Amino acid sequence: MSELDQRARALAGKLFDAHCPQLMALKHRAHQLCQKFNRLDEKDPRRREIIPQLLGSCGENVGFMGNIFFNYGCNTHIGNHFFGNYNLTVLDDGPIHIGDHVMIGPNVSLIASSHPLLYQEREALTYPDGHVSMSEYAPPSLSVTMSGLPVELSSAVV
Asked: What is the C-alpha separation between 90 and 93, in angstroms, rounded?
């Protein structure tokens, strides 16, 4: 299966290979931008320059406290007048759309996809390098999850 197919599968909420080079490169870029953002002082204006580079799209008056973590960033779209408080984690393997006038409290995770929950499905995953997925899975402590569906928040306080 091609790399493009893997990204399309992820965005559609289907089982995908996160180890394909295209997805690994997108993820690495997002992680670097998050690290850069998190190292800056909260009053440093360079933080505002990083956000449009990280996200798929964002409106006006979008702000975050630190620390932030985005898995891909490019799959997250944020409207106008948004505030994300401390320790926001966004696992945007699938699309995440956040509307206008949304405030997210501290220690929130938005998770747009999940690992297969049945061990038989995980064991069936064989990657191009030959390794097989493990048969145990410990789910995260999460606030919002929409496995296989886009996460959409609008005019909400989470």
From this structure: 9
H/E element, 102: strand 102-104
The residue assigned the tokens 């966004």 is 90
- pTM for the model: 0.76
| Phi, psi for residue 43 in degrees, rounded to 5 | -95, -5
SS3 for 42-76, per residue?
A: CCCCHHHHHHHHHCCEECCCEEECCCEEECCCCCE
Query: Is residue 115 flagged as an active site residue?
Result: yes
Evaluate whether 122 touches 139 at the Cβ level (below 8 Å): no
Which tokens go with 54?
């990280």
pLDDT one-digit tens code per residue, 99-113: 999 999 888 888 887
Residue 78 has pLDDT above 80, yes or no: yes
Residue of 77, 97, 115, 131 with catalytic role: 115
